[in-house]
Amino acid sequence: MIKSVFGTEELWSVLKESSSPILLYGTGDGADKILSVMERKGIKASGFFASDGFVRDRYFHDSHVMSFSEAEEKYGDFTVLVAFGSSRPEVIENVKHIASRHRLFIPDVPVCGENLFDADFYLSNLDRIDKARKLLCDGRSVDVYDDIIKFKLSGKPEYLYFSECPEEETFSLLSGGYSAYVDLGAYIGDTVKKALSLCTSIKKVCAFEPANKPFEKLSQYCASVPCVDFTLVKACAWDKTESLEISDGGGRGSHISSSASLSGAKTKTVVCASPDDACNFYGEKLLIKYDVEGAEEKALCGSASLIKDNDTELAVSLYHRSEDIFSLILLAHKLMPERKLCLRRLSGFPAWDINLFVSKK
Description:
Strand order of the largest sheet: 11-10-9-15-16-18-17
Strand content: 15-25%
CATH topology of the largest domain: Rossmann fold
Number of domains: 2
Number of strands: 18
Distance between the termini: 47 Å
Radius of gyration: 21 Å
Helix content: 25-40%
CATH class of the largest domain: Alpha Beta
Number of helices: 15
Largest sheet: 7 strands, mixed
């Protein structure tokens, strides 16, 4: 039976009832996660394909990876599950082209954690979802919130297109004029560079990055910037100082791992530290950016004093864990009840690059 919640049909029950062959577009970690959900829910994948011109002679889960043309020749009509993410315009256009020829969904599986945003998850968290929705300060934020939830439930790409906005719009949601900036998840320094270019009044920066190679590049970049006082922290942003396991992809995907998600993953032990302990800022006009691969809740709790001791605004990623879309809104309001909460999402798929802006503007 197909489940209908929040005005849309749940993807997994639609697939369960479908008689159409189901093909995954793409291979790799995203496909592995989708296949794991399908197996739990008793849904069978018929095969895998890649874009014409990009496919090579290989197998994935013991199945030959076809080109899109080969898939159409073999199956005719079929259902497509997009199993990767991208923000590149030409890739988005190709997905739209495939969607014009076949029924297409983009399953929402969590970057981190074990919770799947399905109908049961939605209903069990409905009270918190509604409370978070009521805290958003403008109609556009509410529309984005509703479209993201409908996408998570249904996998229908049109809800993603409805919810996207240009990056320039997000900058207008913050008041600016910052004297200090904290970057939690600084990677190679690209977001530090962007913050400094957008707000030239910033003279103090504290940046966290746990992975070795990105931290080296971050350090090199910061050493090249004059007239800014940098504090670089080679650690995961957390609520206290301790050592934990981290997935070690060497890139933006490095994240704190639960024991249930460690199987088969390359991991290492890293130091975690709280922003309250590492960032010695008082009385500053402060912006804190949180993009810490599923550790946002811990990092927010670990920066409570920093938030209180400064004139603070926040930019918080809400897409790593299924619950982030509502739980982090509730937590941000608890920490900063006087601030306005706005929600925006940049172009791309699946529902990544969702940001909560907490400001006095």
